[in-house]
Specification:
By secondary structure, the protein is α/β, with parallel strands linked by helices. Helix content is 24%, strand content 17%. It contains 6 helices and 6 strands, in the order αααββαββαβαβ. The protein has helices at 10-19, 26-30, 33-36, 116-124, 142-148, 175-188; strands at residues 74-77, 91-94, 125-130, 133-138, 162-168, 194-200. The strands form 2 sheets. A 4-stranded mixed beta sheet has the order 1-6-5-2. Strand 5, helix 6 and strand 6 (194-200) form a beta-alpha-beta unit. The chain is globular and about 40 Å long.
Amino acid sequence: MRKTVWEGRFASVRRAVAIAGALCLLAACASNPKAEAKDWLADCSGVPGDPTTPAALDTAGPATHGPGAPGRAVRLVASLLPEEDLPVPPVYIFGAHGEHITGPDAGNTWWSADPTFERLRDEAYWGEVVDRRFYRVPWLGQCEIGRLLPHAEPMRGPPGGLLFLQFLTPDCAQCGDASAAIERLVAAHPELPVRWVQIQVPAR
């Protein structure tokens, strides 16, 4: 399995998330014809927090911003509402290998230049301690995101770039902050290939 934030702790995370059974989208999927037709979820177990990235989503999409890109975000409408108790974070950031970007390192020094990303990260993950190490676990894993999508959407950034999956929910307090932060990053790094996907989530 590709090295991600999940490495070495799936069993512990699964136990922790299973306690919060209210987060499970499985029942909603079983009663939703659109969800049943989503063959790109075939690799998902149905367990909340399953770290699997379905094969159909484990691809790189074309850049929307950067050299030669059109400069417009992709707009989608979610085809399935999340469960009542499932938080929908403002944004997730993925690298070119499908890894979650959750902090600054040698390859993404842009993170430290904008504290907004720190706040957005805190909305998107919960904490889990395994073997005395702290990990960030996404509220929405790739399978949960896949259930919301109207079609199979790539979950890798373009080569050498980033993927922003932004969720626009009614009365979202941080949606404007997320959009502004992404726009600032794109403007400050015109050489960086970025794929920006905005997913409109209808009111429950």
